[in-house]
Each structure stands twice: as C-alpha cells, then as structure tokens.
Amino acid sequence: MEVVERWFEKQHNQIQNWEKDHVRKYQKDIVSRITHVMDCEAYTLGKNQVYLREVSVYRIRDEKTFSFQIYMPDIYINPRVVHYQIHHVHGLPVVREKNNEDFLQYRDVYRVLCEEFMTSADLVGYKGGTIERDLLKKLGTKGINIELLGCEKYANLITKYGMTPERFPYHLHGDYHCSRHEVQVFAHFLNELAQTWTC
Description:
The protein is of the alpha/beta class. It has helices at residues 2-5, 17-24, 27-33, 83-90, 106-120, 130-139, 154-161, 179-198; strands spanning 34-46, 49-59, 64-70, 103-104, 123-126, 143-145. It has a single domain (34-196), classed as Ribonuclease H-like superfamily/Ribonuclease H (Nucleotidyltransferase, domain 5), CATH 3.30.420.
C-alpha cells in the first residue's frame, strides 16, 4: 500500500494505466479511507500565485456540504488579468468585501478547514487539481486525486447520473462549474464505487 500512496497526488496526465490497474487491488481500502471530497475555484496568476475564490468540502460521514466564498479586501487582482478565468472557467468575479455570511477571508477559511480536517479527516479526495493538492499539503492533510480511482470529468458524471448542473448564485450566468455541486457529484461517484463491494 505504501507504493500506491506515492501515486495519490499525481495529476491526470502523470497517471499511467498500469498504475491504475495496480491501485485496483487496493481500491476498497482506499475508498473506505476517504472521509471528505474537496474542490476549489481560484484565480491563477502564475505558478506560485493562486488566490482561492470558492472552496467546497463534502463530508462523507453525514453527507454535509460546506461552501465558502472568499473575499479579498487587501489583495489587488487586476480584473483584466483574470478575465479569461472569470468568463470561461468558473464565472466568479473578484469580491472586495463581505457580501453575506457565505463570504470569509482566506485566513478564516484556512482555519475552518484546519479544524475540520484535523478532527475528522483521514484521506481527502479531489479531482485532478494542483490547487487542491497544494492546499491539502499546507493543511497537513493527506489527499488523493480520485482520477486514480477512475473518476471521470464532472460533465461526464452528471450525464451518466442524469443530473442537472447546479450553481451557487455567486457565479455569473453561463455554463460554469460550481465547486459545491462538483464535490457532491464526486462523492456520488465514490459512493457508487463503494457499493460495488457491498452487492
């Protein structure tokens, strides 16, 4: 199992088919260890400049979803620089002040995640992203790219499950991914995977 854990954080373009085949031997144990699913939306300005904008966590034990919108009063992000990400990726405009209780500053989101993961996380699933992987490392929490377990793209999964895309009202109108719905769909995938051993 130690060898397999080294592959947990690989990105989809780094995962070899033989690694996926090898992981299948341990799939039941791995899936049983996943306690949460996390997804983030962010502004990426460079390799080391990532500003989180939306973080969602699905806790598998009680099927509860937490979502946080992040406002940035002290960080200047030129809207022209992140225009593509706002209008073609996540549809989340830069927010400078707290609009309501869903909005927190990054340090507060970090604190809440630390508390949640320190008290109840064994292994946190995420799909593909380096943003999630790096955040989990900062939090001192083990993560796994669930693509290693065969998880498909969000769009493929909602089609497969006959679901309709859902979005928080904070997203601009359009065909954008919402981290809140993504974690729920990815958790559904993991639950379906777990059911294959109970039948």
